[in-house]
User: Fold this.
Amino acid sequence: MPTAHRVVIAVFPDVDLLDVTGPAEVFALANRETAGRAGYEVRLAGSAAGAVRTSAGVRLLTDVAFADVGAEVDTLLVPGAVDMAEDGPVARIDEEVVAWVRETAPHARRVASVCVGAHLLAAAGLLDGRTATTHWSTAAQLAADHPRVTVDPDPIFVRTDHGRLWTGAGISACLDLALALVAEDLGEQTALAVARQLVMYLKRQGGQSQFSVPLSRPAAGRREIDELRLWIADHPDADLSAPALAARMCLSERHFARVFKQETGTSPAAYVEAVRVELARRLLETTDCPLDQVAGTSGLGSAETLHRAFRRQLATTPAAYRRRFRTQTV
Assistant:
């Protein structure tokens, strides 16, 4: 009798190690948390049985050759690999993997890509006419190479085709994608139990951004601006007005505003609001605090200001955001 959840992960030379081992660990922990009832059986498939060298130099042993996988595949998981060019990483297209994915995908209950594995799904024609995500650094390449694919570089993962097709963002987001697959199979509480075992700060939902506010901005050329950005993040409820920040930097308000925008690409007020909205988002996702309290803790002051900031930053309301992304606790 076939295993309830037979997961087949493609491996090939220079595949990203975490893209393979991260999801595999999530499925293994799901088995452990359910005393084996989850029924996940993970198999690594490659061009032939044997060792495959990953991008980290660690070698993986395949369980089965592509030609011998067969039709009994519950979840087909496709990781990625990159080559480095002068202007950044370029997703590698392994034609053997593409051909195998094209042949195997119709037999699988669902297909998911991890990180730049989305480029392989696109090359196989699986993403035409659909929305997909990938690692932010190769999103432009995916859009240019596959104009029939709507590329959204921001989400952690995208679920399309009535849950049959998933694409995930970069590197550590493979854990979020795998947890979402577990939640679909076994329920949210099992997925949260696995997240706790992984000591993850939060099991993120698919529509959330790949970036926190500090990560979404390039490092400043001036160290004192980077230090100020960190201080802002640590003190969201402080006086973060332009005059107060300028005084902290020992600069005139006008000069400070000019330097800050030159280094960060945004105004001090816009940056502060983005930081405070990010904190408010986390509070809405993880607590039942009333909106007035969320606004006060995040430095936005009042529910009215919170509402206006969410409209500007996220084009939604705090209540709607909480309904969509609130993480239920056991």
Q: What stands out?
A: Residues 213-325 form a domain with the Arc Repressor Mutant, subunit A fold (CATH 1.10.10.60). The chain has a mean pLDDT of 89. The radius of gyration is 22 Å. DSSP finds 14 helices and 13 strands in the chain.
